[in-house]
Design brief:
The protein is α/β, with parallel strands linked by helices. It has helices at residues 13-22, 36-43, 48-68, 75-85, 98-108, 125-133, 145-152, 167-179, and strands spanning 2-4, 10-11, 72-73, 91-93, 115-116, 138-142, 157-161. It has 2 domains: 2-11 and 72-179, Rossmann fold (3-Layer(aba) Sandwich), CATH 3.40.50; 14-68, no CATH class. A 5-stranded parallel beta sheet has the order 5-4-1-6-7, sandwiched between helices. Strands 2-3 form a two-stranded antiparallel sheet.
């Protein structure tokens, strides 16, 4: 059982948008949850070094915003805790950087730990990480349906799309997908 972090465990959309806006970048909805390495370089004229500098500035802005803002947990966090208490193995994954994720989770709920961050992933990203977590598959929960399909499609992993369901609804859906 693997949960994406941003938009599933914690509500970070506004703070991420603000951090990017502070460095002059708009993050379109369809790119939410994807690694900056895929979409920021083209916005920087194909210059990977410039994209890295912009991303580093965004990360500093993000960390500054986190120091002044409390992050809200979502039903995914409650579902993860509940499933863990029932004996499920629960892990978290994100395309975000390790330092930002650590601060985000600490701000929202320090009990949420044990994750793979974007800085831990190679170029094949979340899909490869899921296969390494369990080659036999499992259930992956993501709020970006299209990205979730790309991550799980053609693999042994099954997708549950988190779109704001209550904790109990999410747990039922995870159970149904797990049993299917």
């Amino acid at each position: 059982m693997v949960f994406d972090i941003d938009g599933v465990l914690v509500d970070t959309r506004e703070i991420v948008r603000r951090a990017y806006a502070e460095v002059g970048v708009e993050l379109p909805d369809h790119l939410w949850g994807t690694t900056w390495r895929n979409w920021l370089p083209p916005l920087c004229g194909g210059d990977l070094l410039r994209a890295q500098v912009v991303h580093d500035r965004k990360t500093r802005s993000h960390l500054d915003l986190l120091s002044r803002t409390r992050v809200t947990t979502l039903a995914g966090a409650e579902a993860a805790r509940e499933l863990h208490s029932r004996g499920w193995t629960v892990k978290f994954i994100t395309s975000g950087t390790r330092e930002v994720v650590q601060r985000t989770l600490h701000s929202a709920d320090p009990s949420l730990n044990g994750f793979l961050a974007g800085t831990d992933l190679d170029s094949t990203g979340k899909r490869k990480a899921l296969e390494e977590i369990s080659p036999a598959g499992g259930v992956y929960v993501d709020d970006n349906y299209d990205l979730g399909v790309k991550v799980t499609g053609g693999s042994t992993w099954k997708l549950v799309h988190f779109h704001g369901q209550a904790e109990t609804e999410l747990i039922k859906e995870i159970g149904a997908v797990w049993m299917s």
